[in-house]
Design a protein that fits this description.
alpha+beta, single chain, globular
């Protein structure tokens, strides 16, 4: 599920501590952009679909904070997106990448869909401090093997 800032702005990975876009631009050797239309074009030009496992959920509040936390550990009452319909509409998708173990666990718990090759990447979240940016980029390089038409 998107974090609170992403939900407020209706954009993926809106929190500037999240490294998703920086990792992707680095992997694809493109100049980084804060412009969301440029970010979406980068995905489209490289045949990358971006979708949350969950369509809806509840998030408990973090005890010291009155607002819901963006941390995955506070997610409950999960409602998955309709992956069967999505895959039927996009049969060319063979590989699915998850940004952390929680996303994979939700997918495996809720999604009944055609077999795909599942990959787990290190979370780009600012809360994931166990790896440096460069370590995350190195782990994410696996996606380059599966991109339809990488930008040159």
């Amino acid at each position: 599920m998107p974090g609170e800032k992403s939900l407020q702005t209706n954009t993926y990975f809106a929190n500037n501590t999240n490294q998703f876009w920086k990792i992707l631009f680095t992997l694809l050797n493109q100049e980084f952009s804060d412009d969301y239309s440029v970010r979406k074009q980068l995905l489209l030009a490289n045949g990358i679909a971006l979708w949350d496992v969950l369509k809806a959920c509840s998030r408990e509040t973090d005890a010291p904070h009155p607002a819901p936390s963006s941390l995955d550990k506070y997610i409950s009452q999960e409602v998955p997106n309709d992956f069967a319909a999505f895959y039927a509409e996009h049969p060319q998708i063979q590989h699915v990448f998850f940004l952390g173990q929680k996303a994979l666990a939700a997918y495996e718990k809720h999604v009944v869909a055609p077999a795909k090759v599942l990959h787990v990447l290190p979370s780009p979240s600012g809360a994931n401090t166990s790896m440096s940016f460069q370590q995350k980029v190195a782990e994410w390089k696996v996606i380059l093997k599966f991109i339809e038409s990488p930008l040159k």
